[in-house]
Specification:
The protein has about 280 residues and is an alpha/beta fold. The chain has 2 domains: about 80 residues, Alpha-Beta Plaits; about 150 residues, Vaccinia Virus protein VP39 (Rossmann fold, 3-Layer(aba) Sandwich), CATH 3.40.50. Helices cover about 30% and strands about 30% of the residues. The strands form 3 sheets. Strands 10-9-8-11-12-14-13 form a 7-stranded mixed beta sheet, sandwiched between helices. Strand 2 and strand 3 form a beta hairpin. Bound molecules: S-adenosylmethionine (SAM). S-adenosylmethionine binds next to helix 5.
Length: about 280
């Protein structure tokens, strides 16, 4: 498959707003990187050059891109995999090659570029990565719902989870997650494809459900009658600040109390909740 890439150099604030707007539209194939103290570079990718109309309209407002290119998937991913390893939560390093030198005591997650969300760059992923990295999950069963590459569930596994299940609606994500599980010594992981809890067998429960999902999906999850038998503990990220009130109310309606909230950045928040006794 061929991937098209467009790049814009933008003032930092405009670049961030644009990346957040793309994410809010559900379009995740983009990346923001610093170019100077004042500027960022926004890169947008599209398989076969196909952009949804709403994304095209948003990008039209930026004017012509500074650069554009077409990549063959294999060579492009090979180039991306030369990136440096990065610490995305204290002690947890994402290594695209699996072979890079890391500081002593670093915990390595081998995550090559995969065609799914979850390379550890996004603040909503990092927020849950930090919570997981700071927890002892010894013996627990975790469900990573909307797993993308599986990054969060794999960190849960590194933190001692006895069993981690994964689910995502996107077939690319399911394949990417299976590959990431194999690369990180968890070949037997169950990775299901489907819409939220419909993907998960009805008798499968967990001690902790982690989900980096937009608020509209979280609201659907909280209204799902299968949720009570699935879990009593939720860690949610990916909730736009303006949608947080609705999520808090839905949590209360579903019988949960909020035990923690944290900003991922000035746009997104994370919420931890437990079922009321
Ligand atoms: C923001 S990404 C999070 C990926 C990864 N867990 C992370 O934190 O980086 C959201 C993921 O949810 C998946 N998703 C979207 N709608 C879904 C649905 N209805 N059911 C299950 N997964 C869904 C997307 O395919 C995507 O992989």
């Amino acid at each position: 498959m061929r991937w098209h890439e467009w790049r814009w150099r933008l003032p930092r604030r405009q670049g961030r707003c644009c990346a957040q707007a793309l994410t809010a539209l559900g379009y995740l194939q983009h990346a923001l990187s610093s170019r100077s103290r004042a500027d960022v570079e926004l890169a947008v990718y599209a398989a076969r050059g196909r952009l949804p109309p709403a994304v095209r309209a948003l990008l039209a407002g930026l004017g012509p891109p500074r650069a554009q290119a077409v990549h063959e998937e294999g060579t492009w991913f090979a180039a991306l995999s030369k990136q440096q390893a990065q610490e995305i939560a204290p002690g947890i390093w994402i290594d695209p090659t699996g072979r890079q030198r890391l500081p002593p005591c670093a915990v390595r997650l081998h995550l090559p570029p995969l065609p799914a969300f979850g390379d550890g760059q996004h603040p909503t992923t990092r927020l849950l990565a930090r919570w997981l990295a700071a927890s002892d999950l010894g013996g627990q069963r975790v469900l990573d719902l909307g797993c993308g590459t599986g990054i969060l569930g794999l960190i849960a596994r590194l933190r001692g989870a006895r069993r981690v299940d994964f689910a995502d609606a996107d077939p690319h994500a399911v394949r990417a997650c299976r590959q990431a599980c194999r690369l990180n010594g968890y070949p037997g992981a169950r990775v299901w494809r489907g819409d939220l809890l419909a993907a998960v067998p009805p008798d499968r429960s967990c001690d902790l459900l982690v989900a980096n999902l937009y608020a509209d999906l979280v609201l659907r999850l909280l209204a799902d009658p299968r949720l009570p038998s699935c879990t009593g503990r939720l860690w949610l990220s990916g909730i736009a600040r303006r949608a947080a009130g609705g999520v808090r109310r839905a949590l209360r309606r579903a019988g949960f109390q909020i035990v923690k909230e944290e900003d991922a950045d000035d746009w997104w928040i994370g919420i931890a909740a437990e079922r009321r006794a």
